[in-house]
Amino acid sequence: MTKADLIESVASKADLPRATAERAVNMLFDDIVAALKQGDKVNISGFGTFSVSVRKARTGRNPKTGESIEISASRAAKFKAGKTLKDSLN
Q: 7: how many CB neighbours lie within 10 A of its CB?
């Protein structure tokens, strides 16, 4: 499912114009991103939890040349599925 598919689904299920559904989906994503940028967790009951994972700087190797390279520290989004979501998939 793409973002466009999600917008179409929300529009049809909520009987909303497509533009309104698109604004709603975009606001939801924007709020999740804003919370993660602040370092907060986003817990959606029955679905899962989004959080930020901090990766330390480290030394890596270029697999092609074998040369050592420095990999800088970074932050990445992490998702852990909730029990209800896991159960519905099995």
A: 20
Quote the mean pLDDT of the chain.
95
* Per-residue confidence (pLDDT) for residue 2, from 0 to 100: 96
Report d(CA 68, CA 84) in Å as an integer: 44
- Would you state the pLDDT for residue 19? 96
Q: Which residues, in sequence order, are CB contacts of 67 under 8 Å at separation 6+?
A: 61
Q: Which of 3, 87, 12 is nearest to 47 (CA)?
A: 87
Residues 6+ apart with CB under 8 A from 74: 54, 55
Q: With beta carbons less than 8 A apart as the criterion, state whether 68 and 82 touch.
A: no
Cα 56 from Cα 24, distance rounded (Å): 35
Predicted confidence at residue 17, as pLDDT, reads: 96
Instruction: Give exposure, 45-83, as e/b (b: 16+ Cβ within 10 Å).
Output: eeebebbbeeeeeeeeeeeeeeeeeeeeeeeeeeeeeee
